[in-house]
Amino acid sequence: MAAESAPTGQRWTTSIDHLGPADAPSVGGKAANLGELAGARFPVPPAFAVSERAYLAAMDAAGIRKDLADRGAACRSADDTLLTRESRALQTLVREVTLPDDLRAQICRAYRDLGPDVPVAVRSSAPAEDAADTSFAGIHESYTDVVGEDALIDAVRNCWASLWTPRALTYRILRGYEEEPSIAVVVQRMVRSDCSGVVFTADPRTGARDRIVIEAALGLGEVVVGGQVEPDTYVVSKDDFTLIDKHIGNQSFAIRPGRDGDQRVNLTSAEGTRQVLDTAQVQEIAKLAAAVEEHYGAPQDLEFAIEDRHLWLVQTRPITTLGATDTGAAGDETRDTAEPLVQGLGAGPGTATGTARVLSTLEDSGRLQDGDILVAPMTRPDWLPVLRRAAAIVTDGGGVTCHAAIVGRELGRPVVVGTHDATNVIEDGSRITVDGSSGTVFAGTVTPAAKPSVRQRPAQLQVAAETTATTLYVNLATPDAAESVAATDVDGVGLLRAEFMITGALGGAHPAAMIAAGRRKEYVDDMTAGVEHIAAAFAPRPVVYRAVDLRSNEFAALEGGDVEPDEDNPMIGYRGCFRYVREPELFSLDLDVLHRVRQRLPNVHLMIPFVRTRWELAECLDQLDHHPLGADRGMHRWIMAEVPSVAYWIPAYAQLGIDGVSIGSNDLTQLTLGVDRDSGVCKDLFDTMDPAVLDAIDRIIDRAHDCGLTTSLCGQAVSTDSRLAEHLVRRGITSVSVTADSAARTRRIIAAAERRILLDHARASARTKE
Ligand code: PEP
Ligand code: MG
Q: The PEP-utilising enzyme C-terminal domain covers which part of the protein (predicted)?
């Protein structure tokens, strides 16, 4: 494409020393933030920005600016195939642009000013990035270790082209961005971090402003920021910068920058438990952090890197405290005087009054009007549309971990399960009140005793959000509440159950029947849309998608579900990973969906359910490796730890290449104690806090940790029992995943547990010094 010269006298590049917050609209938030730090003489690696006007001018000069804008806008109504094709074509157009001579000369001059052939990182800086709205984080491309002028110009063009990837296009469409997109670029000298980490200029666990807390690890800082390893923690007094406490972490691996991209390097136990920073370095970092806090006039959360003992500041942002969200429903009370009609297990908090609809089969569901109360023997995934319409759910069978309870709770409905005889006792058409907290159903209208919910409390009584080292995820089973849950203080989705999404998206058809009827594409399209909806709401936070855990009893009733075997014990039957070994075509549906979603939203990862032994996981992973998704090394591969055999097999599973385990304590409790989790009759036996279950959990965490795997727990008990959350934090779990209604409370429990651990540690070391 012919180069035309840009209007003369234009400045396309600016050294970050001359940038500040006011420049964010022209150079993006990332460059503007770095500029403010550099301007205040903080040690920021030298860098310059190529403005977003430079991008637009280059597109103008190449004569493609209007074409890009028009075709990009047309993608809003394009189907997936067309969008992918257009995206490819638009990226090629941008990559083939010849830069106007003046622009190219300015970029090369600014590069030479950084030093002769210096390796640089070339990063996209979108207009909203790193500003108050960080929604573009992770959407556009960055390139590291770029050396030489030609390679630099290519990298700049590639950053520009990343405005038009399927991911960026879809992201803008989903977020409703209509303005012409543009992008700035930051070119920064590479820092080869020997070690790095984060600093808080107030103690994030206690809020104490007279403390500075530093977390450090070997190599690049993403392992600290992402909570992938246990870093060293240093607590420093802000008054005189003395070291008050230190806790040496345990780092199983480090990420090191290399010529061929970042490398994961395993560390020996001696390397991983060696102190990362000496006292002089701790104090130097603390002084720098205090100075940055003074500059901004507010507590800061900074990222630093040390290269050849030189300290660099990589990023800073204010520590924000948000009003906590809490449903408050758990504490609702019903009038003491009312006589209960039936009593079961409170499985979804809140109360509702309405007309009872006793449905023995799904075929009757037309009788349930919006706002009626569903009373049924038990529900399955294909009941989702009815659950959505019901004001509350009451079942004869089930325990608190049954899928009816899980989904009812997620939809925000009061749920009572395990009543034995609700379908006999409750009269169809009668007016009833359901108290999902106490598990009681009353005849007539029973008003809760007056007690303000947390939402109604005066704002000043709301508690500030906590920052925790333990990651807090939520469990989701439907896209219904994705946006509202994503707007709360959670770190992502630790378990996306696909079973209910199938029925939600596909109107109750069995996946195998869809394949047999030649409707495979329809299945993949609909599921992709559902998963994308959730992934976009949470991006860039991770969403762990669990491949469908097909259980014969839950899926037999779907349309075409007669393919399911008739099993006496479906909970230990034809399900999970083994099912994928026998029916690879079913697994390929999940793989296709994830492959499609990750093209645009790479925050989605895979989790394999109900893994029982090594060979079946090996075969399942082999299927993954033979699928195009297998080449996608950025995707995490997790397994669920639900069967006690997992504790034994973890080292073998780690060798097969998984990088995380998530403990499914619902199934693990069932299988450790030998108690059917769906049985109302045996409900008193079902106890995740039983020492035998805790021992199984501990062994899984310890062995996974020894093998360098991340650990999580996504079973129901951690949402309801604060003792379990504390136990897990003490055991060093990486994350927990809870129901959305208990996220705020769990965050506080985790924060308090983390503080207690540090306090115990501080007291123990004070005693040894005495
Ligand atoms: C579990 O078993 O704990 C789990 C989270 O999976 P599900 O409840 O869907 O079986
Ligand atoms: Mg399970």
A: 456-754
